[in-house]
Each structure stands twice: as C-alpha cells, then as structure tokens.
UniProtKB/TrEMBL annotation, chains A, B:
<feature type="binding site">
    <location>
        <position position="186"/>
    </location>
    <ligand>
        <name>Zn(2+)</name>
    </ligand>
</feature>
<protein>
    <recommendedName>
        <fullName>3-dehydroquinate synthase</fullName>
        <ecNumber>4.2.3.4</ecNumber>
    </recommendedName>
</protein>
<dbReference type="InterPro" id="IPR016037">
    <property type="entry name" value="DHQ_synth_AroB"/>
</dbReference>
<keyword id="KW-0028">Amino-acid biosynthesis</keyword>
<comment type="similarity">
    <text>Belongs to the sugar phosphate cyclases superfamily. Dehydroquinate synthase family.</text>
</comment>
<dbReference type="GO" id="GO:0003856">
    <property type="term" value="F:3-dehydroquinate synthase activity"/>
</dbReference>
<comment type="function">
    <text>Catalyzes the conversion of 3-deoxy-D-arabino-heptulosonate 7-phosphate (DAHP) to dehydroquinate (DHQ).</text>
</comment>
<feature type="binding site">
    <location>
        <position position="268"/>
    </location>
    <ligand>
        <name>Zn(2+)</name>
    </ligand>
</feature>
<feature type="domain" description="3-dehydroquinate synthase C-terminal">
    <location>
        <begin position="183"/>
        <end position="329"/>
    </location>
</feature>
<dbReference type="GO" id="GO:0009423">
    <property type="term" value="P:chorismate biosynthetic process"/>
</dbReference>
<keyword id="KW-0963">Cytoplasm</keyword>
<dbReference type="InterPro" id="IPR050071">
    <property type="entry name" value="Dehydroquinate_synthase"/>
</dbReference>
<dbReference type="Pfam" id="PF24621">
    <property type="entry name" value="DHQS_C"/>
</dbReference>
<keyword id="KW-0057">Aromatic amino acid biosynthesis</keyword>
<comment type="pathway">
    <text>Metabolic intermediate biosynthesis; chorismate biosynthesis; chorismate from D-erythrose 4-phosphate and phosphoenolpyruvate: step 2/7.</text>
</comment>
<dbReference type="InterPro" id="IPR030960">
    <property type="entry name" value="DHQS/DOIS_N"/>
</dbReference>
<dbReference type="GO" id="GO:0009073">
    <property type="term" value="P:aromatic amino acid family biosynthetic process"/>
</dbReference>
Length: 363, 363
C-alpha cells in the first residue's frame, strides 16, 4: 500500500505520503522538495530511541546536514519554554530561511515543531513525520501549530503548513495501546462528520481497540480515509473561516474535560470520545439527530476501548465555565458541531446552557 | 491632506489612511471593518499619556469594548516575556478570534502587538496606529511582526498583516527629534531604492533634521510617497520571496551595528543610515554605482542629522561575524542590497568579505 493524498491550498500545496517503511525514504522525499541543506530533527526521547537513527541516516544519505534535539515527552511540556529551547538550537546551528525542522513524534512534538518553524525567522520549512495514530490522521495535517497557555490549550499558535507529511504505518507497532485508542477517537470522528463508509467499515470490524488484531485493510482505511477527510476539509477552508470547524466535533466539551483534568487523567483522544458522546446527545436533545445513530456512535467508541462517560468527580459547572475559553467562542457564544446523520454535521452556536448541563448530568 | 493607500494582497488587502486628526476617527474607521466588539489597545506609558485617552474615547464611542495595556518602552523589552504579558491580558479579557489588538506606538509596540495578535488563538485582528515617523513609513506596513532573541534582532516572528494602518501626522509633534531623524533614514531609503522623485524633493528641502522646519508639502511627500513605496513592494512580494528584500537596503550592516551596540547607543534609523553609507560604498567599490551618487546620498543623510560613520570603538571583525546571523543569509552567504542608480537597487549575495572590511575600515 502506498497512498499519496494532496492537500491543495492557494499558497502552498503539499502531499501526505502513506507507505510502510517510508521512514527510510525521508531524506530522498525531502530532497525532492528543493529545501536548504540544514535540518533540525525535533523528537522526544522515547520516539528518538526507536526511530531517530533511521530518520537521521536517511537524511544524511540524501545530503542534508542534520542536527537533532529531544524535548521531554508530554502535553505539560507543550509550552513557550520548550519553544524557546528550539529557538536557541536554531540559533546555535544557524538555521536559515531555507532550512527545515522535521517533527518526528506525536501531536505534541508536531505542534511545537510547527510553531517553532512558523515563528523562527518569520517562518521556515517544516516536515511532519507523525509517529502516533492521532498525529497521522489529524494533527500533522492542516498547519495548526501551537503551545498551551497555563490556562488553556493551544491558545498560543499559528497556521503554518508543512512542506510534506510522511506517514510510515510500521511505526505504529511501538505505539502504546492507550495511544492507539486515542487516535481511534479522531478516526471515528471522521466517520461521523464526513465519511459514512469509513464509519460502516469500522462498525464491521472486530477488536478495534488493539492494533495487532485490526486487519490490514482496516488500518489502510483508517489512515487513508481519515487523511483524505482531513485534507478535503483543510483544502476547502485553510484557516477555519467556516467548514473547517467541523473537525472540532467532540472537541468543544473535549477540550474542557482535558483542561479540567490537567491534561493527564484523560488524554486528548479520550476527551474527544467523551465530547462526541456529549455532542451526540445534545444533537438528539435538540431534535437534530436520531437516538439510534447516537447509539451506533457510542457503541463504536466503546468498541475502540474509549470512554463514553465523564471522569469521576469532574464538576459540570466547571466544564460549562471552561467552554467560554474555547478558541471558537464568538460574542460569548460557544460553537458546537452537531451530527444530523452519520457522515453529516452542522455548526451551531445556539445550544442552550441548560441542554449542555442536562446532557452532562446524564453522563 | 487625506491619502488612502491600498496594500493589495492575495489573502487580505488593507488600507493605509493618512489624515491629520485621524486618531479621533479610529473607532469609526474600525467600525467599518466589521470586527468583533472587544479591543485591546497596546501602548507604552509615554505614548499612552499623550494619545491613549483620545484613542480609547474614539473606540468606546464607536461601540467597542476596550481594555488597554502598556508595555515598558524600548527595544530591550521587545522580548517573548512581553508577549507573554499580552497573552495573559488577552486571556483575562477573553479576547476572541474576532477581537482586535490595536498597536498605539512606535515600531517596538507595533512589532510586538502584531506578533501577539499573530499567535493568539492562531491569529486575531491587529490595527496599526503608528506614532513615530519610522513606524508610519515602515514597520506598521507590511505585516512583519516579531520580537528579538537575546542574540539577534527580530529572529522570532511571523507575517501577520494588519486590518488597517491609521496614520495621524499630528502625533509627530510630540516625537523627540532623534526619533524623527531615525524615521528619516527609512524615508531616504525609499528615495534610493524606489523613488528618485522623493529623493530629489528631500534634496531640495532645508532643515530636514527638525520636523518643525520641514514644509507641510515635504511632510506630505515623506508620508505618502514612503507609504506608497512600501505598499507597492509588499503588494508585489508579501513574504519576501524576492523583491521585498530591497527594503533591507542599509539593514544588513545596520542590524549588525545595532546588535553590537546593544540596541541602545545607536538606534535603528541611525544604524540604517550607517548601513546605507556602507552599502553605497560597497556598490561603488564593486563598480555598480557612481561615486557622485553615493556622495549625494551621504549628503542627504547628513542633512537629516543622521550619522555617516561607524560608532567609536566598534570592532569591524565583530560586524563581519554578526552578518552571518542575518535572517537573509542563504547557504552561509550574506545578502546585500546595492544601488545602481538613485531609485534603483539590485540584490546580490556576491560581496567579498574583503570589500566589506575595507569599506568599514574607511568609515
């Protein structure tokens, strides 16, 4: 299986290349992009131990001059302080405007490397080499970069499209099970918001909660159909003027849950799963969606080993207050993405707080 | 005199409005842009004392909900720490994607406010209200935003175009003389790189070094012709792929001089003046420019009360080393903008270090 998906943008289009073993071709793939010779590979210690050498060897063989730097793993290091470290490394190694940062890691590494690249010398190249399912199908595509503010996730950031996204499905083998499931939350999201066929394929497959039991053709669908969905949406609305907001299905309440649990107890995918369950029930409460469809969604979420209930002890009023911090709040109104069918959603900022409250109380 | 100059860009065009007394119309002008209601005015204590109330009253009368924040004045506060303060204020006041930051001040305030706006929620609106000549004719236009790294100026930043630039020439009355002269360096630059007629007009006027002696029609030409030059260049090359580099005439060596004198002894305009003298002499040494024209340039720089010699005690080898840190270095080669006639320059990365050294030794 080798798939190429194009992200078509007015200013700079790029390819998502999905192929087993492609990590070894990183250097060659980048050589085709006509970039400067200097490359900074950014990773975290765990990922770097597994894949750093392979990536660097490939880059070096293709004639790049490579330096690498590991940031500590974890959402709590997704801060401006980490970005300042990358600036220092960029300066020490005299990165130029034609130089490239390569993000070798999951969503946190991708977001931070992208943001450092977006803001060093007012923007240098970045190539995304995602190593988690979540990063492959979501965060590595579409140019959203950034870090957390102590009081809110991804509040600091920029749009900065990668020059290429290179996905090697083989690296999923070392992905912890919980991380795989977190990525599945975004995959299920694409089924609900965009691709009913993907949804049906997931429904028809067994053991979705453990990578090694998932059939190759399902993995193929998971990666290519998800990336295609994301690429389609981003191509139509690069900077979230309208359509792109649908990618935030499950994220409105999800972000609040993540934030209130300190980004630790509940990971991003789990929070999105909870958020999708809540959004589905809000859609039902507002008469937009069939109860039967929301149950199909929730069954799939459960089958993927993801939570469908709020974590113990979380304060519902705090969730409602935290929604006001969402980046998509407009004139104080919280924006929700709500399904109307499997594969179709609508955007609305007209959800009564009372409906949100009732749905959360039932979870 | 009221002039409107358009900056035409593929994604978002905007107007530069030049009119005496226009500070009082800020609110109305912004109301026409269909922005969200929340506005954060960013300034420094001195500027805010003079113009803060007028700006805020105008905004409030137009229906905006306004908060303001002053950053300490001076290039040494142009740091990520100051940006973090702005993020905190943005969070406390729940700025939304439709909200606007207004930069009321000189280049430092404009660059920082622009960068904070570029990176808060991945980009909110910014309106530039420049209060120094330098900011009016240069830094407020064109979307370059950023802060300094401890080891280099403007190394951290982003392109983020303003929604509007509002220039009220009356605020120049409170501008310290040295600051006025600093702005004149950029004005002279436009004469050399783009607008021979502006150059001739400046040559024909007396007492260019003191604002109150400059004739109104010359002030008019200074503002409108300079803004027009900048707008033309930026419209043709928003992100410095090629042509825009000519705006860096005098800045290659200028930046090095500024940096080596700690951004204090020599201000930006003075550094650019020194850099133009150096670039002119390099152009002559390489046989590109007439000695006579470089003398006309240097005479005009002197008439504007700007330096034409290196500051005492500066180490020429350190200047040459610092050039390697310039953002425009490509494959280790320093890029120079060199005049070939008054009003015409060329871009070259082919200047021997020895030529640079000899020219600097003569200064």
């Amino acid at each position: 299986m080798t798939s190429i998906i194009n992200v078509n943008l007015p200013q700079q289009s790029y390819e998502i290349a999905i192929a087993p073993g492609s990590l070894e071709q990183l250097g060659q793939q980048m050589a085709n992009l006509n970039l400067g010779k200097k490359v900074l590979v950014v990773s975290n210690p765990t990922i770097f131990k597994h894949y750093g050498e392979r990536a660097i060897n490939s880059l070096t063989s293709a004639g790049f001059k490579v330096v690498s730097y590991c940031l500590p793993a974890g959402e709590r290091y997704k801060t401006l302080n980490s970005i300042q470290k990358l600036y220092d490394i960029a300066l020490e190694n005299r990165l130029e405007r034609s130089s490239t940062m390569v993000a070798l890691g999951g969503g946190v590494i991708g977001d931070m490397t992208g943001f450092a690249a977006a803001t060093w010398l007012r923007g240098i190249n970045v190539v995304q080499v995602p190593t988690t399912l979540l990063a492959m199908v979501d965060s590595a595509i579409g140019g959203k970069t950034g870090v957390n503010h102590p009081h809110g996730k991804n509040l600091i950031g920029a749009f900065h499209q990668p020059r290429k996204v290179l996905i090697d499905p083989e690296v999923l083998k070392t992905l912890p099970m919980r991380e795989f499931r977190a990525g599945m939350a975004e995959v299920i999201k694409y089924g609900i918001i965009w691709d009913a066929e993907l949804f049906a394929q997931l429904e028809a497959s067994k053991n979705l909660n453990q990578l090694r039991y998932v059939k190759p053709e399902v993995i193929d669908a998971i990666l290519t159909r998800s990336c295609q969905a994301k690429a389609n949406v981003v191509s139509k609305d690069e900077k979230e003027g309208g359509l792109r907001a649908i990618l935030n299905y499950g994220h409105t309440i999800g972000h609040a849950v993540e934030s209130l649990t300190g980004y630790r107890l509940v990971n991003h995918g789990e929070a999105v799963a909870i958020g999708m369950v809540a959004a589905g029930q809000i859609a039902v409460a507002l008469g937009l969606w069939q109860q039967e469809d929301t149950e199909r969604q929730n069954a799939l979420i459960q089958k993927a080993g993801l939570p469908t209930r709020l974590p113990e002890g979380i304060d519902i009023e705090e969730i409602i207050a935290a929604l006001q911090l969402d980046k998509k709040v407009k004139a104080g109104k919280v924006r929700f993405i709500l399904p109307t069918q499997i594969g179709v959603v609508k955007i609305t900022d007209d959800v009564p707080s009372e409906t949100i409250r009732q749905v959360l109380q039932g979870m």
